Every structure is written in structure tokens, then in C-alpha cells.
User: What shape does this take?
Amino acid sequence: MDSRMYPQGLGGIKSKEIGNTWVLYDKKGNVIATFDGDNRTIVIPSGSSITGAGGDGAAWATDSAVVFSGSGSMTWTGVTVTQNRYVQIGKTMFHAFKLGPYTVGGTPAIDLRMTIPNSKVANGNCDFVLNALENSVFIPAIQGFVQSGQNFLSFRKGPGTTWGNFSNGFMSATAVYEVQ
Assistant: This one.
């Protein structure tokens, strides 16, 4: 590698500026990351990882302003939030949550809803795997999803199946979806 084109950086990392893009290389000349100032993006090659200053990966945040509701006149109340953490990298939201116990009441309807963290809005449709218990009994074939333009996650028991009134419900998932 020509040190005149790739000036020596800290710890043997070399860099090169091309227009408003800054490229970091390791000692072997492999690209570590590309920083594009015009488009405000950072590109990291496949097989690489991001580690925060604490050494434990990208910083996860907790959303304490989450709102729980039901579609129609259904209510979702008394929700104990064991975990509601997320990290957003670019437009991709990684969201992990554990809820329960909680109570569902009112007029039975199709959707239970939980707001997307940090007041974000979905930028596409996406399904995810969800585990749930109703009256401490496992619910098979439950579906979690986000829809483009919505600011909440939806949870359904199955095609055309409504949630009934119950207490002692539990739910958990790790969802990955795109936000605006």
C-alpha cells in the first residue's frame, strides 16, 4: 500500500479521502468502513461488526412512553413491561420486548397494538414471530406485524380470530423492521 495515498493513522489504520467520502483501511489494505459526508452514511463491509465504546455493541435504548391499545373498543390495560428495548441503525429498527402480565377487555376485536419506539413510523410492511400466552395458555399461530405509514405494531391471533377478554396475558418478540 502506498503511504503517500493512504496516510498512516492510529494503530496502523490508513485512510483516504475521495471527494467528500472518507475510506478507512486496515494494515492489509482491506476496507474497514466508508464515511459518505454528502449522503450522511457509514458503510461497513459484510462480516464486520459495530462495537460501542463500552464494548457491548450499539447502544440500546428503552422506550418508557409506549402506548398499548386495542382496535375498535377493545382495551389492553395493566401491562407490565419487563423489556422494551430498541436500537436503530440507519432506517432499520431492532426491537425486543417482553410484556406481561396484562389484561384485555372491552369488545373483542382483531388487533392488539403497541406504539413503535421513539415515535417512529413504519416504512414498509413486515411480519415477525411472536410468542404469547392468554390466561397463561400458549396461543398458537399468533402474528406480529407492522404496516407502512403506521406508528404501531399489531398483534393478531389468526385470520379472522378476535381477542377475547382475559387477564394474565404474556407476550414477547424480537422484531426487525424499517422506519422512516
Q: What stands out?
A: The chain is about 0% helix and 50% strand. Confidence is low (pLDDT under 50) at residues 1-11, 51-57. Residues 84 and 94 are 11 Å apart (CA to CA).
